[in-house]
Amino acid sequence: MIGAQFKPAAAAAFLGVPACEAAGLILDLTDLHGPGAADLRDELLYASSLPERFLILETWLLARIHSDLTPDAAVAHALAEFRRAPAGLSVGGTIERLNFSL
Fold it and tell me: End-to-end distance of the chain based on CA atoms, in angstroms?
C-alpha cells in the first residue's frame, strides 16, 4: 500500500475538480485519470524498492497537476490566517470573520 497526503487545498490540483466535489466519495483512480491509471498500479507492484515506489508515485502525480484550478480567495485567506496563528484560531471563528456559512 502507498499513499499521498496533500497540503490543505492542494488536492484539487491533482483531482482535477474542487476537493469538495469529491468529499465523501470513493473514487477509483481511473475515474479521475482514465485507464492509464492502471499502469501506475503495475509500475508500483513491480518496483524493486520502497524509494523507487515513492519516486514513481511522485513522478506520476506531478505529471498530472491541473494548474488551471485557482484556489478560492477566501480559502486561501483562511489558510494564511491559520499558518500565522494556528493555536489562536478556530474554524468557526474564521468562518465568521470571513462572513461565510457552512
Answer: 34
**Burial zone of 78 (CB within 10 Å; 0-12 exposed, 13-18 middle, 19+ buried):** buried
Cell of 73: 480567495
Show me where the domains of the chain are located. Answer: 72-102
Q: What is the pLDDT of residue 101?
A: 66
State the Cα–Cα distance between residues 41 and 36, nearest whole angstrom: 10
Helix (H), strand (E) at residue 74? helix 73-84
Q: Whole-structure pTM over 0.90, yes or no?
A: no
Tell me which residues of the chain have a pLDDT lower than 50: none
3: which 3 cell numbers? 499513499
Q: What is the pLDDT of residue 27?
A: 76
Q: Which residues contact 4 (CB under 8 A, 6 or more apart)?
A: 14, 57, 61
